[in-house]
Design goal:
Length: 401
């Protein structure tokens, strides 16, 4: 764009005025006090210059709002692993607890991974996330768990070729027994624990059993990944936004025996924006819902390993963020979150003493199992099958330990 000579002249005049004001403004008060005529001239000068060139000084950028919440101490175990690597940056971005919640982050892994932890810590520092007020990398339980508010137990021994389930339970049992004891000794009495490392339900149970001074409600296992997978399958089938799929349920174990239940869920704004439809009515294909939908959700982890050559990482991290966010900040009104929680023996016929996935609502920082849902005969058989597996895992883990 060509600029006129008058515009250029105005720009030069404005710059000259800025220079005059910069050098004379500190002395205006002195000039004004020397005589009445000087007072008038100074007033005229300032008024004229101000009218010709506003603003005289660019406004300063507003200072960032200080946090009003007390920092929460959050520990991530297996901090050098793939799931942790994904979730740590989500936490830093405020996706778990919000941009107004400062966090003191502790990264825990085994001594052999000390250098890797340090590398992750360096990257987190380089991101300069405002919510991360302190980041500590450690291989020491006390440093990791002391006064911790939230513990994400992600690290676990993976199942190797030819490894039997009881061998996996024994290996992980020792890890989670140790972490349970450490949490019992050093964590806050109000700590919230989410176990991600598999077998998640039984690992959570082992940790809970080794933390007798903490409430049983403090320990949960993550089945939100399975719920998210179910929601995604339904949204794709119906060609609707995934957020329109509400209240799918994962019952039982985070394993192939889990029961993805659609009988109580709805599709919002379907088939018209002002309507909501039960999932079964919306899909209108019981054979698919009771067949390939079920097995796709149950076998999704293995399918990802087959295609990718590695287990789920980013999706597991995202589900853990969802799990903790709902637990701490609350589920949305009328919505349920699937969570592996302690069974009291009075709910849906599940025996006491298991970590079992139920539909839950969360408020005031506590989870509450949704009660009174009708369980049909077919569903009850599926609940019985996953209960049986969890009882066997509990038995095998106890024998191994």
């Amino acid at each position: 764009m060509v600029r006129s000579s008058s515009t250029l002249h105005s720009d030069r005049l404005a710059a000259h005025i800025d220079c005059i004001l910069y050098h004379t403004t500190p002395h205006i008060n002195l000039i004004m006090s020397s005589s009445s005529s000087a007072h008038r001239r100074a007033g005229q000068l300032v008024g004229h210059l101000a009218a010709q060139h506003q603003p005289l000084v660019a406004p300063l950028r507003a200072a960032p709002v200080a946090f009003t919440k007390k920092p929460l101490k959050l520990c991530v175990t297996g901090a050098a692993g793939n799931i942790a690597y994904a979730i740590l940056f989500m936490i830093g971005q405020g996706k778990m607890l919000g941009n107004d919640q400062p966090i003191e982050l502790r990264l825990l892994d085994i001594p052999a991974m000390a250098n890797a932890i340090n590398g992750v810590l360096m990257e987190l520092n380089d991101c300069a996330y405002p919510v991360l007020t302190k980041i500590i990398g450690t291989t020491d339980y006390k440093t990791a768990f002391e006064d911790v508010d939230i513990a994400l137990l992600i690290g676990a021994k993976p199942r190797g070729p030819g490894m039997q389930r009881k061998d996996l339970l024994a290996a992980n049992g020792a890890i989670f027994a140790g972490q349970g004891k450490a949490l019992n000794q050093w964590a806050k009495r109000t700590v919230k624990v989410c176990v991600v490392g598999n077998p998640a339900n039984t690992n959570a149970l082992i940790a809970m059993q080794n933390a007798p001074d903490l409430p049983k409600t403090a320990f949960t296992a993550m089945t939100r990944l399975d719920q998210n997978r179910a929601m995604s399958q339904l949204a794709t089938r119906l060609n609707v936004p995934v957020d329109n799929v509400k209240n799918t349920i994962i019952w039982g174990n985070h394993s192939k025996t889990q029961y993805p239940d659609v009988n109580h869920g709805v599709i919002e704004s379907y088939p018209f924006p002002s309507l909501s439809s039960p999932i079964r009515a919306a899909v209108n294909d019981d054979a698919w819902l009771d067949g390939s939908f079920l097995t796709t959700v149950q076998d999704r982890g293995a399918a990802i390993i087959k295609e990718r050559g590695k287990s789920s990482a980013a999706s597991a991290a995202s589900a853990c963020v969802d799990h903790v966010r709902d637990w701490v900040l609350g589920t949305q009104k009328g919505q349920w979150a699937s969570m592996g929680v302690y069974s009291d023996g009075k709910t849906y016929g599940v025996p006491e003493g298991l970590i079992f996935s139920f539909p839950c609502q969360c408020y005031n920082g506590q989870w509450h199992v949704v009660k009174g849902l009708k369980i049909d005969e077919r569903s009850q058989k599926l609940l019985d099958a996953t209960t049986k597996e969890l009882l066997e895992e509990k038995r095998d883990a106890s024998a191994a330990l």
